[in-house]
């Protein structure tokens, strides 16, 4: 947040926005461009983790059979992921994955939400490192569960050989292998990253575009206003994307685990 | 990528290459989050859900148990009542039987007593009669001998000594009288 405020205050932000707008100067040491340990991004990650831990521990410190409002809210988040994602996708076995999926969903949701929270206004997930970690965990998880459930050989046979005529298999097996073991984690990470990246880029284009037009010619001021109104509208769209991407990430992870546990294709 | 980097400016970041430090920080942060939430929060939520289910099902079960116990108690009371009635009837029957037995006893005793009294009377009567007959026999013998000696005029005392004559006579009298 400090980095961005600096950038805006110093009038350094240029139009059109570039990839470099996603790489802000670090906080500690202040203003360094090649230090990544303490940056706005890592700070936001810690804030997200801290907020979630404090929220859940505070609301669930003393659970009651008849819940208070806060407890009910925390329970309904868990209940939503448990019943509408885990159990819906995986079946009754899904209950044991519900704690992980809920953690995943909450983490992605909160880190995404930074994209539209004033003063933060960029999501950590617009750096591919964070979605990549989550995608790798999902990847390892569904393969591990598949191997443990079916055994090593049977799992790969099951994953790679679809029930198809033998003459089509030479074509299908490489496609299956590619899609299951290479595309899946990559698409999972890139989908989230690209959505957050593009969302931020869009907001930058319309915000900075407004300034650019105003600076270029005073007569363009009404167009600048239209540009900023667009920014507000796109922020609302971004809110939708934030929730949707958190949901999609969780649902896809659940679906991969369901596929690994399934007895048939 | 190179075009993007070139456009980006002097330092040149590639958005598709993850930053190592961020991977480390993200992994640790997410691990901490997972640890806390999956160990201390969500299992307790499952427990609470379970406790809620138990509370509802337990309430129903407790009500059913209470109902069953009440039914059992009712059955028990009914059984006890029936038993008490049977006992009472039995006691009444016993009492009736006892009373009857006592009555019979008393009657039997009374009859025995009366028989005894009658028998004693009869015996006494017979004894007295025998005494009187014996006395009379001796007297009648004497009187008859005296009378006969007066009538005949001579002493029949010698013959009277042959007492058998008189006795025979009297026996003949008795046997005819009895007939």
From TrEMBL, chain A:
Principal location class: membrane
Intracellular or extracellular location(s): Cell membrane; Membrane
Transmembrane segments: 43-60, 97-122, 128-145, 166-186, 192-214, 226-248
Alphabetical list of InterPro entries matching this protein: ATP_synth_F0_asu, ATP_synth_F0_asu_AS, ATP_synth_F0_asu_bact/mt, F0_ATP_A_sf
CC annotations in GO: plasma membrane; proton-transporting ATP synthase complex
CDD domains: ATP-synt_Fo_a_6 (cd00310)
Sample GO molecular function, one term: hydrolase activity
Topology with respect to the bilayer: Multi-pass membrane protein
Alphabetical list of SUPFAM superfamilies matching this protein: F1F0 ATP synthase subunit A
Keyword Transmembrane among UniProt keywords: yes
Keywords: ATP synthesis, Cell membrane, CF(0), Hydrogen ion transport, Hydrolase, Ion transport, Membrane, Transmembrane, Transmembrane helix, Transport
Biological role: Key component of the proton channel; it plays a direct role in the translocation of protons across the membrane.
Protein name: ATP synthase subunit a
Organism whose genome encodes this protein: Micromonospora lupini str. Lupac 08
Gene designation per UniProt: atpB
Automatic annotation (TrEMBL), chain B:
Coiled coil segments of this chain: 56-94
GO molecular function: hydrolase activity; proton-transporting ATP synthase activity, rotational mechanism; proton-transporting ATPase activity, rotational mechanism
One GO location term (cellular component): proton-transporting ATP synthase complex
Classification via InterPro entries: ATP_synth_B-like_membr_sf, ATP_synth_b/b'su_bac/chlpt, ATP_synth_F0_bsu_bac, ATP_synthase_B_chain
Keywords: ATP synthesis, Cell membrane, CF(0), Coiled coil, Hydrogen ion transport, Hydrolase, Ion transport, Membrane, Transmembrane, Transmembrane helix, Transport
Segments passing through the bilayer: 23-42
Localization terms from the record: Cell membrane
Location, primary (coarse class): membrane
Gene3D superfamilies given in the database record: F1F0 ATP synthase subunit B, membrane domain (1.20.5.620)
Domain of life of the source: Bacteria
Entry keyword Transmembrane helix: yes
Membrane topology of the entry: Single-pass membrane protein
NCBIfam families: ATP_synt_b, PRK05759.1-3
Subunit details: F-type ATPases have 2 components, F(1) - the catalytic core - and F(0) - the membrane proton channel. F(1) has five subunits: alpha(3), beta(3), gamma(1), delta(1), epsilon(1). F(0) has three main subunits: a(1), b(2) and c(10-14). The alpha and beta chains form an alternating ring which encloses part of the gamma chain. F(1) is attached to F(0) by a central stalk formed by the gamma and epsilon chains, while a peripheral stalk is formed by the delta and b chains.
Role summary: F(1)F(0) ATP synthase produces ATP from ADP in the presence of a proton or sodium gradient. F-type ATPases consist of two structural domains, F(1) containing the extramembraneous catalytic core and F(0) containing the membrane proton channel, linked together by a central stalk and a peripheral stalk. During catalysis, ATP synthesis in the catalytic domain of F(1) is coupled via a rotary mechanism of the central stalk subunits to proton translocation. Component of the F(0) channel, it forms part of the peripheral stalk, linking F(1) to F(0).
Similarity-based family: Belongs to the ATPase B chain family.
Protein name per its UniProtKB record: ATP synthase subunit b
Taxonomic source organism: Micromonospora lupini str. Lupac 08
Gene: atpF
